[in-house]
Structures are given as structure tokens and as C-alpha cells.
Design goal:
- Helices cover about 30% and strands about 35% of the residues.
- The chain has four helices and five strands, in the order ααβαββββα.
- Strand 2 and strand 3 form a beta hairpin.
- The relative contact order is 0.18.
């Protein structure tokens, strides 16, 4: 696939899967042997594991919205810098709903093979998320 096709598939992945919650699109976008190097511990590999990760985050943040800030592509890789926003309305990895609105930034790297996403790495502000949810204190604030 061309760099432009990989960029377009990345945009489709964010819009269809993350923003719309369309899990049927996962099988069209990810390879059968997809590896998510950023999945939380205990999640299975492949598209089914990815669906479980998406379901977990969308259940915790039903109004989840991801906005791509930068999209850089070269060869078989696409890098995306993004901002997510949502309201914590469901359990997230054992954290009960707080009702708090959050914003989290992150960067994804995707590797493509055979016209689909084959591998994923991510770095995102998990500490900032936990601070916004009130799970850990923000530096400079009194502990409780």
C-alpha cells in the first residue's frame, strides 16, 4: 500500500473504531495476526483482543472522542499524535466511575502489512489520566 493509503486507513481506524465504536470495522482494518504492544496486561492478541480493549475504554468513556493533531507516514509506518476527551461514566481497570471529564494526549505508531494495520505501539499520558480521575494526587496539591 502507498503511504497515502496507510494514512487514510489510520484516519478510518480512529473515526470508525474509536469515535463511532464500530467494532465490525476492526476485522477490515487489522490483520488476523495483529499485535498490540500497548494493550493492557491480560488482553488476548489479534483483532479480538483489540476489540476488548476498545470496548473497555468506550464503556468507561461512552462520549469518548479522539482528535488527530498530527499524522506522519513513511514506508510501512504511520505515527499519529492525538487528543482524547471523554467523561468517566463506567468502570476503568477497577476504577469506579467518577463522572469527571478528562483530556489525554498520546502518540500511536502503526505498522502496515498487506493493506492492514499489523502492529501498534502507543505512549499516552496515563499519569495525567489518573490525576484527572483523582486516583493519584497532582503534584503541588495537598494529599488526601
Amino acid at each position: 500500500m502507498s503511504v497515502d493509503a496507510n494514512r487514510a486507513l489510520t484516519q478510518r481506524f480512529y473515526e470508525e473504531v474509536w469515535n463511532k465504536g464500530n467494532l465490525d470495522a476492526v476485522d477490515d482494518i487489522l490483520t488476523g495476526d495483529f499485535v498490540d504492544n500497548a494493550a493492557p496486561p491480560g488482553f488476548p492478541t489479534g483483532p479480538e483482543g483489540a476489540k476488548q480493549v476498545f470496548t473497555m475504554y468506550r464503556a468507561a468513556f461512552p462520549d469518548f472522542r479522539l482528535s488527530v493533531r498530527d499524522l506522519i507516514a513513511e514506508g510501512d509506518k504511520v505515527v499519529a499524535r492525538w487528543l482524547t476527551q471523554g467523561t468517566h461514566q463506567g468502570e476503568l481497570m477497577g476504577i469506579p466511575p467518577t463522572g469527571k471529564a478528562v483530556e489525554v494526549t498520546g502518540i500511536d505508531i502503526f505498522r502496515f502489512a498487506g493493506g492492514k494495520i499489523a502492529e501498534h505501539w502507543a505512549e499516552f499520558d496515563m499519569m495525567g489520566l489518573m490525576q484527572q480521575l483523582g486516583v493519584i494526587p497532582t503534584p503541588g496539591q495537598a494529599g488526601g
